[in-house]
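From the pipeline queue, job 12 of 40. The input is one protein chain; the requested action is below.

Action: predict structure.
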Amino acid sequence: MTSARIALDGETLSIERIKSGQSVSIAPSARKKILASRRVVDRLTHSDKAHYGINTGFGILAREKVAPHDLEKLQENLILSHAVGVGDFVPERIVRLMVLLKANALAKGYSGISLEAVQMLCDFFNQHLSPLIYTQGSVGASGDLAPLAHLVLAMMGEGEVLLNGKQMFAKEALKQCGLSPYKLKSKEGLALINGTQFMLAYAVDGLLRADVITKTADLCAAITLEAMRGSSSPFDARIHALRPHQGQIAVAKNILRLIEGSEIMQSHKDCQKVQDPYSLRCAPQVHGACRDAIDYARRVVEVELNSATDNPLVFENGDVISGGNFHGEPLALAMDMLAIALAELASISERRIYLLLGGDSVGGIDLPKLLMRDTGLNSGFMLPQYTAAALVSENKILAHPASVDSIPTSLGQEDHVSMGSISATKLCKVVQNVETVLAIELMCAAQALDFLRPMKSGKGVEAAHKKIRSVVPHAESDRLFHNDIEAVLRLVQSEAIVRAVSKAVGKLK
């Protein structure tokens, strides 16, 4: 996919556009809206009436009026006091998403922020200037306050950043990029840290990877089906038309396309097998249900991408209204569902790995136990299955929904929170685990197919096998399988294996 500049307008951003965008700008329509809402805030700055976040304190301190000459200091103090993140650093790719998503939300024109602040976010993205942000500290309620505060710190020339991958103090990085530390105006600190962009960035990252994972999972099922000499009957379109879940139908079509033209599938049409285990036979039902759950998460995220999620919101007629669009519940539930769905794809994959190791004999051709002839001296592929089992077990813990928890904050003012930030960070771990389990299945299934030569598998399976063998040779004896897993994992994460298969049989659903 070719790279493009994304004109941010707060209305038209999509996951696909994010995937293809390498730079951003503010759309002309957004500039007008940003300037209009800022004029409203400027008028209210010196008002005798209390306006939350403009001339008052925050949270439980909302009743505390702040003098006009202290409003800029109020915003600076807000950032300094809220930058309390702890734990590991957020991956740079996700920080870049946070910057982009924050700029787009503000470009919607309901935040009362200045054009200069939004432009600085665009400059950060375009110059690969990524604030160092911590994974822990947000409860996913009044926006992702702590993570976003660390983002704003960098805009102010405080804290540390990565500039083209090199860690340095923010003030020095700004200087190298030709930028000056930003001086926050009234309401701007609040507008910048109220929002769901920490959660949303993780959700976007998870969905981008989930799109590859679902196709890879279908590919895994097809290769293992061939290697185990299973039946193609359970993928007959007539079965799935009678239970027409869209994900189920798509998976069955994918698997049939991948095994089309297979000599292996033809070779055992009259064997004594009656039914295959569920991990093969029910792949459309399991993979399909996971796909449908992922589609739900995608719909939620696509709405959130173009939503105003700070507080208060500034309207064209001059109204400034406090609400709760910063609350992370929609994303928390969606990411918990996404984690569960992806964990299931790894769970059924591990069962197929276990099947492959058990050996089989059909039509006089043996598939050796542990996928190696000389076992005893060699352990074969026993231990990769252990690793898959460990990751699947870890996913069972990580798939517990964070969104069912809530701990009140701000002395009870924020009495129900989403914990969506925890949904976000554990989703990232689940995705990594799932990709690794699928890589192990691909590695094992390719080894199994080797024993069925010279028979050919389906065109799609052959393309996958060839791609795997380009980075991992057949194993005649034990070796450092860790390196093999890593090599195949890179094929999965880079989409190389999905692209190779799509080139052979057309784009998978």
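Job complete. The two ends are 17 Å apart (CA to CA).
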